[in-house]
Amino acid sequence: MEKLKLLSTGTNPQTVKESYVLPPELRPGNLKNSCKPIPVIDLGGGGGSSGDADESIINQIYDAGRGFGCFQVVNHGIPEGLLDEIRRCAEGFFGLPVEDKAGYCSDDPNRLPILSTGAAVYRSSGKSYWRDFLRLSCYPVEEFMHLYPEKPPEFRDAITGYTVETRALATRILRMIGKGLGLDENHFEGALEGGQIRMLVNHYPPCPDPSLTLGLPRHADSSILTLLLQRDVRGLQVLHGGSEWVEVEPLPNAIIVICGLPLEFFTNGLVRAAEHQVVTNASTTRTTINMFVTPRRECLVAPSESLITDGTPRSYRSFSYAEFTEAHAAAEHDRRKTLDAFAIKR
Q1: CA-CA distance, 227 to 324, in Å (whole number)?
Q2: Using one digit for the tens of pLDDT, what is the confidence trace for 104-120?
Q3: How many domains does the chain have?
């Protein structure tokens, strides 16, 4: 535990140690902030398939995927009580005594579950990032539930319920994206069959000087979709138009949907993977719950032939999801470098 020196253990630091101070070009605030908000889409409550959604919702989701690669959904059908419980348990976990968390602590990035701090894969700068995190596999539920944290005592049940609900929501959203592309609504479900869901709880304590560091650097996700839950503390920023950071406004009980790079590959670039980063603040702890919905490792990542036309020729070669994860890690989650690794050269 002492070796890791979790930011959330002990008193709040009064200065930013050199190990967290980023080079000037990597610090927040180098790009002007945009006042253009990311889309907020009302799903109309309930669950069900995309057949329950009217054409305007499908078009809104597709347009948001093309423009931002990120949007918020409200009236999504996940019970408010479950959202409150998973947030309370996630925040409570980081407030546990040291001895209750010590068994999860590790500096081995491949261990799951893992409680750690700083950077996971973003190591080229030689700097750490201002966060602690808990990462675990949580789907299939039957396979991983025995590894869920035992404290707080309600955490295991909350993870189980939230995993089931978020997977259903992700499936529903992918069906609507498929319909927006003119594909069969079940087009993406083959990729998800047998795929895992990983939970990442990011915990960002107050930072003495937020201008010097980041909670997470600019990156794109390796999931097909990421579903993010937060409270009312700002921090997430999404890159729009390649030059403007859009601050995501927290909305009560909204789920933030972030399109990952596999979805950009699956759609031949018609849906964009959102590049995003996390800034810190000097006064308030921020805790977020991220659910990464991933294809199975042997899944073939390739666009539907119906998406390839004379006007939109095929941009990327086919590859397995396992090959993608290796390339993405080597590129340190950089969107452009990962796309280039699979681009068809003409």
Answers
A1: 20
A2: 998 887 889 999 988 64
A3: 1
